[in-house]
């Protein structure tokens, strides 16, 4: 392959794109630069302000360690630096660029509002120094802003968005990029310094720490797991391959939490250990190139991946979503409850509703929750308990290993009937019916609520008073009626 080398020395700024293959910024930098390094900037202060918890940060840093090994094999050193807040990053990058004599920075775009502001500030500052900062659209199939109605407006409903996105994509093959080329070995050890101090006390180093302010991250255990999840790009590819063998039954099995019926790729998509293009390419290859139709399981999974795109596009078109505001602005009038004791019971999985409690305990124990159950517990909190959905959104961000702001915000607002494409306000998930339908034998409940394991398959969904198990926290039927009345009275 012939490479058009136009830059002497480049720097890839890694974020949530921690993979070697199909990485737009990394690949383009390797083709354009004679010499290349990478940097990862941890921002624990801002991450904490964004409610990112230990699981997602620990997984991110563990994936970064795996990627560092792969990059070194291609003669691309990876630097790490802890810069507490986004606002400090532009000046730190300016110092790094100056000290390492960087000609251009390559990075993949991020779309929440604070990330956009950070990136604009970096670009504006380095432009004054004559340093090129190149952004690539890598997290979505189509760049935000590229999918528009005939009137040039953003889509506010998923189905027409999906139809328009597929129309844009269907005429061309979904191609994935190869891994970056191997950069010629440096002439000496001092070619790229192992570390250097910057003004302000920060240290740029090739050592990835096992501790960060505000976070307990450590290293993955000896078996290579974080919270039970194997880390890194190779693990993501194995997970994708495993799912490809059962994707045809995805539509049938995906809603049953006791079954291994979902892809479980969300932590890898969120950290960027795998790309959405790689996932779509696999699905299309099994569906004879069809985005719609063909096998129901494959088409259903493709649709779920497009939901991820949809929620990310919305962040760009509606900045208020990044400011804690509902998409449906009139729903800000809802008289939410802010009962701390009740919220803590929901958080612990002590509501007295077995499917809700089992789901919350799964989250607290494994840092993950089955998607069907995410909707069930969100509906129970925001509708039956009428507690502000933002409390639940924040708790998920703090506890989930796949905590993606766009998907988490979109999912909570959908369920709470405050968001785009939201479930109608009068649609309230009945947790008992959900339990009976999707955990009919109580297998999932028994796993995470063992105090109920002696009950019959019928009784376990709505149990009688049981020693060691709490009484139900609220009248589910009355809570539903109250929520419907509150939403119906909105002006």
TrEMBL record:
Domain Photolyase/cryptochrome alpha/beta: 8-141
Co-factor requirement: (6R)-5,10-methylene-5,6,7,8-tetrahydrofolate; FAD
UniProt cross-references to PROSITE patterns, sorted A to Z: DNA_PHOTOLYASES_1_1, PHR_CRY_ALPHA_BETA
Residues annotated as binding FAD: 250, 262-266, 301, 304-311, 402-404
EC numbers on record: 4.1.99.3
Protein origin, superkingdom: Bacteria
GO biological-process terms attached to the record: photoreactive repair; response to light stimulus
Name the UniProt record assigns to this protein: Deoxyribodipyrimidine photo-lyase
Broadest EC class assigned to this enzyme: lyase
Substrates-to-products reaction catalysed: cyclobutadipyrimidine (in DNA) = 2 pyrimidine residues (in DNA)
Keywords: Chromophore, FAD, Flavoprotein
